[in-house]
Amino acid sequence: MSSQPGFPGTWKPNSASSVPLFEQLRLQVIHAVDNGILPPGTRLPAVRVLAERLDLAPHTVARAYKELEAAGVVATRGRNGTIVCPRDERLGGLSAAAAAYAAAAKAQGATFAEAVKLLAAAYDAA
């Protein structure tokens, strides 16, 4: 299990943005995971440490971590900290939901293009 002491690098949240600070951090972690900057098994900094580095309140970082955990991007392992999950674990639930959606769309006679259009509209609305 590796640690990533340099995370988040030079990235800083933008307090002038309309995007909440916890959401900016959540999106930054997802971006870093998706781009291999934070590979599976990487331990994220402790909440208080990251809050200090980013000049954020600890509850802001804790909320971002909680939402990342709910999405399966990271797992909190007590004294071992918050660890980046392998992508297949992260997408497992989403894959099952996609299969259920595809089955429902086919059962109702929707074409692939119609199903994708509905999914895109739902995704944009979420």
Structure notes:
A hairpin with a 5-residue loop joins strand 2 and strand 3. It is elongated, with a radius of gyration of 17 Å. The model has no long low-confidence stretch (mean pLDDT 88). A three-stranded antiparallel β-sheet has the order 1-3-2. It has five helices and three strands; from the N terminus they run αβααββαα. It is mainly alpha-helical. The protein is 56% helix and 6% strand.
Report the portion of residues in β strands.
Answer: 5-15%
Largest sheet: 3 strands, antiparallel
Oligomeric description of these chains: single chain
Specify the number of helices.
5
Shape: elongated
How big is the Rg? Answer: 17 Å
- Provide the structure class: mainly alpha
E-strand count: 3
Strand order across the biggest sheet? 1-3-2
How far is it from the N-terminal to the C-terminal residue, by CA?
34 Å
The overall average pLDDT, rounded, is 88
Q: Low-confidence parts lasting 5 or more residues at pLDDT below 50?
A: none
Helix fraction bin:
55-70%
Along the chain, the helix and strand elements come as: HEHHEEHH
